[in-house]
Amino acid sequence: MMKFANNLQTKSDMVRNMIPFVLTALFLFLLIVLQTTVVPSIAVFHVVPGVVFVFCICYSIKNGGLSSIIFSLICGFALDLLNGRPRGCDALFYMYISLGCMLIHDCLYNVSLKIIMLCTFTASVLYGAASFGVSFLLWGETQIGYAFLYKIVPESLYNTVMSPLLYLFVCRCTVHRQDGGRV
User: Fold this and answer.
1) Which residues are CB-contacts of 170 (< 8 A; sequence separation ≥ 6)?
2) Phi and psi at residue 147, in whole multiples of 5°?
3) By three-state DSSP, how is residue 111 classified?
4) pLDDT, tens only, 38-60
5) What angle do CA 125, 144, 128 make, to 5 degrees?
6) Which residues are within 8 A (CB) of 149 and not within 5 positions of it... i.e. 6 or more apart?
7) Using CB atoms within 10 A of its CB, is residue 182 exposed (0-12), middle (13-18) or buried (19+)?
8) What is the pLDDT along the chain (183 residues), one digit of tens a residue?
9) d(Cα 47, Cα 40) in Å, to the nearest integer?
10) Which of 11, 23, 157, 173 has the fewest CB atoms below 10 angstroms from its CB?
11) Torsion angle defined by CA atoms of residues 3, 13, 182 and 171, in that order, rounded to the nearest 10 degrees
């Protein structure tokens, strides 16, 4: 009888521990659908926010570890498949940005919204510069000043404005129990 009760308790703990992952996966699916369908219609001066990118940054800073790198790699690859860009570029960029955010997670004890917004802005500028380098400089396009002022910085500001909203959801997905484990 006791063995059955312990087995049942282990399964309920497993289900309870899977809830944050399921919520995160569902929200990610929703964000990918929004990113590819609705978000381009709210572009300001032809600048589209990267909601999946910001979610990956927030997730990596909040959770850290190898799981955040794999999560960002999957997000980048999903966007590569749906956007028609060169396969693997976004996945690679997302993975490197996630690695940097994971290092920030390891260095900071208490993460505030200011840190999230600063990291989002910095990561967005780096991502925009790398994306410009791969997409345009290889084809001989050298209008770096124009791309920086009219595409990279406005998109970074747009992403920075969206980061507190997505960070609050990431915090809700990773609620901690009193004994230190995740819900």
Assistant:
1) 24, 55, 58, 59, 62, 63
2) -65, -40
3) coil
4) 988 888 888 888 999 999 999 99
5) 25
6) none
7) middle
8) 445 445 545 656 666 777 777 888 888 899 889 988 898 888 888 888 899 999 999 999 988 888 889 999 999 988 888 877 667 788 999 999 999 998 888 787 677 889 899 999 999 999 999 988 887 767 777 788 888 898 999 999 999 999 999 998 888 776 543 344 444
9) 8
10) 11
11) 180
CA distances (Å), 136 to each of 77, 120, 128, 143, 144, in order?
20, 23, 11, 9, 9
Query: Which residue is it, tokens 């909203």?
Result: 165
Sequence letter at residue 107: C
For the chain, count helices (H), then strands (E): 7, 0
Name residue, tokens 């990773």. Answer: 174
* Cα 126–chain centre separation: 14
**Residue listed under structure tokens 């999230």:** 116
Q: Which two tokens stand for residue 144?
A: 């770096």
